[in-house]
Amino acid sequence: MRTRRGFCYPCPDSETQSKEAEERVGSVGRKRSWMGEESGRRKRPRAASPAEEGAAAGGTTAESFFDNLPDDLVVFILSKLSHSTSSPSDLVSILLVCKRLNKLGMNPLVLSRVSAKALAIRAKNWSDSAHKFLKQCADAGNLEACFILGTIRFYCLENRGSGASLMARAAIGLHAAAMYSLAVIQFNGSGGSKNDKDLRAGVALCARAATLGHVDALRELGHCLQDGYGVRQNVAEGRRFLVQANARELAAVLSSTADAAAWQAHRHHRFSAGGAACSLLSDFGCNVPAPEAHPANRFLAEWFAMRGGAGGEGLRMCSHVGCGRPETRRHEFRRCSVCGAVNYCSRACQALHWKLAHKVECAPMDQWLDAPAAAAALGGGAGGGPPPENGTGAVN
Three-class SS of residue 288? Predict the structure, then answer.
């Protein structure tokens, strides 16, 4: 109904209907909270996830972008990461991110690029799964895995054939440490009898590893040339190889900032019993820190330390702490000709341990015994003598 001025009066029926609708909405909207208080607020709508917002907007999110990456690209990235990892935990943390990374991380291309530090498994953490992982890396063509697993099988698990074949596979791939390890086996006849020694084969392997710059092989070859052991004697050439080994070790120390600072702190000082330096260039008055052991040698040292020494009765360990090799038969290693208290698997370990610690510990055997006992045992003569200048006097 309209008035003369044009205003409309509300219809009675429509007014009643609007009031009923408001009461109906209010009764539905009012809720009683868990504390007994009434609340007229409605439930707030759930916020959309980033994936839903991206799908609604027609774009892509981080998750969908990763899922859309091709497998070849992910494998290439994982191979780069596995080559740069500095510990096994870093590699494991990458593989545990998601199922896709775990699956693609076991690709042969990724396993073949795993670094030696990522394969540095500690002896206390050794298990079947660790053995399986090293085996997969070795099957993928990883030379470091072949050498580490071969060393573990040969010395720790006493599987001589399988261990030697794995080290030989790494040596064929020009792995210098594997060549030197096989040379030590040939020099000592490890895993066989004394008649299984092959000095010429050991010298040939050392020469091949020396051409690749392996420091221990250079040192071993130098002493073999000086002593005429397995090769025609050439003192001048042997001295050249020893100087080259010392220079390479010093260059390796100087290439690292931390080791270079330690070398600067120890240079032009004489070695003392409590020192932590190895005077490899003592002729020039230089001291350098002791070289870091290879993961395979560290595993050997930890493995036999946990078991109280070499496995068999009467078997000895190499006295150089950075080696870890045990005897595979009695009297396999050479001992110091002066004191007879230490044993070495190679001339390189003997020369390094002499500079590192044994120089201040070595004493003739007659000083250990009483005068009557020494006279009875040695027929009245003096046992031992002053060590050679290079500290390599030894007998088998």
Answer: strand
